[in-house]
Amino acid sequence: EWTPEAFVDMTVNELRDKIGSDKVVLGLSGGVDSTVAAVLLHKAIGKNLYCIFVNNGLLRKDEFSNVLNQYKGMGLNVKGVDSSKRFLDALAGISDPEEKRKKIGNTFIDVFDDEAHEITDVTYLAQGTIYPDVIESISVNGPSATIKSHHNVGGLPDFMKLKIVEPLRMLFKDEVRRVGGEMGIDPELLGRHPFPGPGLAIRILGDITAEKVRILQEVDHIFIQGLKDWNLYDKVWQAGAILLPINSVGVMGDERTYEKVVALRAVESTDGMTADWVNLPYDFLQKISNTIINRVKGVNRVVYDISSKPPATIEWE
Ligand code: XMP
């Protein structure tokens, strides 16, 4: 029978045998998979694991500093790299969703490659790949084609030529969470909703500016904190806010306003492949909508997305 305890013991031993005194680099995202992979490797090889956590400027409000501090508190050897400006510059003027993803993917690869070069004599690249990723990648692209297709200028960056270690590649998501729990990772971190790699970029419809990111971070923060305060967070599989590229008319006192609309989305799902919108209490929606409109300058209307997947995807882009 599979137990997280036995998995941790076995995997830590295997990683030690395989890696010896070589160095490993790993990109942390703040998500469950990369964090659990890092903690397993840290248990096995300690300071020879070099973690890199990149701020792409598209994370949730205060997420970069909060998560970075959490990682440091866990004893991980982690370097936080704030590349917000580099990402926002790369995204300037771009509205097409796939174009956004490509820019973000390529910028990440460039930043990560620069950082990986700072570590002398690194041998391995560790990844938090889990079993469903393995299956998807093989069936859609053939092994490891996905990441390579992102970077088709000037050949492969050096870090992609490193030997790969993927300690979670036989696990499903719930097993990854149990392994994380076994190693003492904060349950709050393990219970975090999924968050897309391109972050808020694909929740800002149209082009991206620092001001739009700031507005969406405030809205998202009120929504997510509200879900937590109302004990709804754990009943929802994923939630977030979308900044729409339209203005609507409103009134404030005697003044007519013409400001942004945000949509809130909360879904139930098991794997993201299909999803239903969540029947959040009206009292909750009323409170959150008022708070957003009162507190976030530039927003005068809130709508709730009541579309299921299929046909509507979870993200709007
Ligand atoms: P959709 O919108 O396709 O989303 O219903 C399904 C799940 O995938 C996430 N998602 C992404 N994750 N990069 C990611 O890492 C992406 O480009 C991306 N697009 C969607 C989405 O948040 C949901 O959990």
Automatic annotation (TrEMBL):
The chain holds residues 193 to 509 of 509 of the full protein. The keyword Metal-binding does not apply. It comes from the Bacteria. This is GMP synthase [glutamine-hydrolyzing]. ATP binds at residues 29-35. It is an enzyme of class 6 (ligase). It catalyses: XMP + L-glutamine + ATP + H2O = GMP + L-glutamate + AMP + diphosphate + 2 H(+). Catalyzes the synthesis of GMP from XMP. It comes from Mesonia sediminis.
